[in-house]
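> forwarded from #structure-qc
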């Protein structure tokens, strides 16, 4: 069976690994980047922990898998009748069976100035830009901001805001810059943090953030951004370091090829009980309108589900129907405190930290053999020497 997979993230990589177990399958994986990105660790890399935890070359993941061919190219359009994908560079790729796992992109909800003046932490380039900015201000100009602003009271905003203060202090100490108390402000437009989790958890997280010195401002809608800061609720908020973690939208590939797909209200692709969109194209992970889409665990699960069904199909067996499973949520708030929620079970503090560490090890092991997964996982505790550039591994 020949299967083409688009996207080298959680969904795409897991589907390729599962399909490759049958040596008679030939898998072509097309991705616009040569690395797999472990998103859950990006906030750590952005705040001075090792870059090794956040990126793994696709070549390392697929080493020894002779039936997986990796092509680095950005797919732009699809012709489902001719079964053909076309890339931004004009290359055509014909497919027999197709799995799409392109992930999400950042959106600023049309808020003026954010695109130009806010920093992000969703990719290597974004993190490099943020670190460069912090390095320039602290190491070269010896300036500490009056306040560092993180926008978005979801998991990423909370993880980042909780680690930011300590990182800035470390940077200052490293470059002999006086700092005093470093002010980090977290802005959230909703009346509470983590609106998808329980009210008890929202309150506990807010309390914890405030305890470690983060100012939490709820019901605060950002109206615009400029070089000097933000307008929030009609009032200026001065800062040269604004980090946007708030909005994600479905990958623009689907809107650009809208005639071939159907969409749910959240602009994700409608899929059937076998995770198939129109024309029999499998759509998984963040792109699919499933109940728990938007989480790595869902993308991994979707990938296993589709790959196993394709293998069942090949063996002449009936495909299984998709059953959404509620993922485990574990969010670190600083190094030694976390929240954990799953099916009504709520844990706070060290037990949740340990569960999150365990979840990360499982996450790395989902795509790497245990030895390598342990190496990636241990990197989470390493503080990066070079504060300026989180130089990733040498590209092959
Ligand atoms: C900062 C951050 C932190 C997160 N933390 C957590 C967490 O703690 N727990 C959790 O469960 N989830 C977390 N998530 C969400 C999780 O990372 C996503 O749900 C998951 O990555 C979705 O997997 P995917 O395969 O659908 O997409 P992705 O993993 O995003 O993979 C998409 C792939 O497609 C490639 N691609 C994009 N455009 C093209 C193109 N045009 N052509 C070819 N290839 C292309 C990309 O380079 C990438 O390799 C986090 C997300 C972010 C941004």
């Amino acid at each position: 069976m020949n299967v083409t997979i688009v996207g080298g993230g959680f969904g795409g990589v897991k589907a390729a690994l599962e399909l490759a177990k049958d040596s008679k399958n030939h898998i072509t994986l097309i991705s616009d980047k040569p690395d797999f990105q472990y998103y859950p660790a990006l906030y750590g890399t952005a705040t001075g922990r090792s870059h090794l935890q956040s990126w793994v070359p696709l070549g390392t993941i697929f080493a020894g898998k002779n039936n997986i061919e990796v092509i680095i190219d950005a797919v732009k359009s699809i012709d489902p009748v001719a079964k053909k994908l076309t890339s931004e560079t004009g290359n055509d790729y014909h497919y027999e069976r197709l799995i799409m796992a392109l992930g999400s992109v950042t959106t600023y909800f049309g808020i003026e100035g954010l695109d130009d003046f806010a920093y992000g932490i969703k990719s290597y380039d974004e993190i490099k830009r943020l670190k460069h900015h912090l390095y320039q201000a602290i190491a070269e100009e010896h300036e500490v901001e009056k306040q560092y602003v993180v926008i978005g009271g979801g998991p990423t905003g909370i993880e980042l805001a909780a680690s930011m203060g300590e990182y800035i202090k470390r940077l200052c100490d490293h470059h002999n810059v006086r700092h005093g108390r470093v002010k980090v402000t977290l802005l959230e437009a909703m009346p509470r943090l983590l609106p998808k989790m329980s009210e008890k958890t929202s309150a506990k997280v807010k309390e914890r953030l405030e305890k470690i010195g983060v100012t939490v401002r709820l019901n605060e809608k950002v109206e615009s951004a400029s070089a000097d800061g933000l307008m929030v609720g009609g009032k200026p908020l001065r800062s040269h370091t604004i980090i946007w973690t708030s909005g994600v939208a479905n990958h623009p590939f689907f809107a650009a090829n809208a005639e071939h797909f159907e969409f749910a209200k959240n602009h994700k692709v409608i899929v059937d009980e076998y995770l198939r969109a129109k024309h029999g194209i499998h759509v998984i992970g963040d792109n699919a309108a499933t109940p728990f889409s938007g989480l790595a665990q869902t993308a991994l699960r979707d990938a296993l589900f589709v790959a196993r069904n394709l293998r069942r199909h090949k063996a002449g067996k009936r495909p299984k129907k998709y059953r959404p499973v509620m993922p485990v949520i574990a969010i670190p708030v600083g190094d030694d405190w976390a929240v954990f929620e799953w099916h009504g079970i709520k844990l706070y503090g060290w037990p949740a930290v340990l569960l999150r560490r365990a979840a990360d090890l499982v996450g790395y092991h989902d795509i790497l053999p245990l030895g390598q997964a342990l190496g990636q996982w241990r990197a989470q505790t390493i503080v990066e020497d070079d504060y300026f550039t989180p130089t990733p591994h040498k590209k092959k």
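QC bot note: Confidence is low (pLDDT under 50) at residues 390-396. The chain is about 30% helix and 20% strand.
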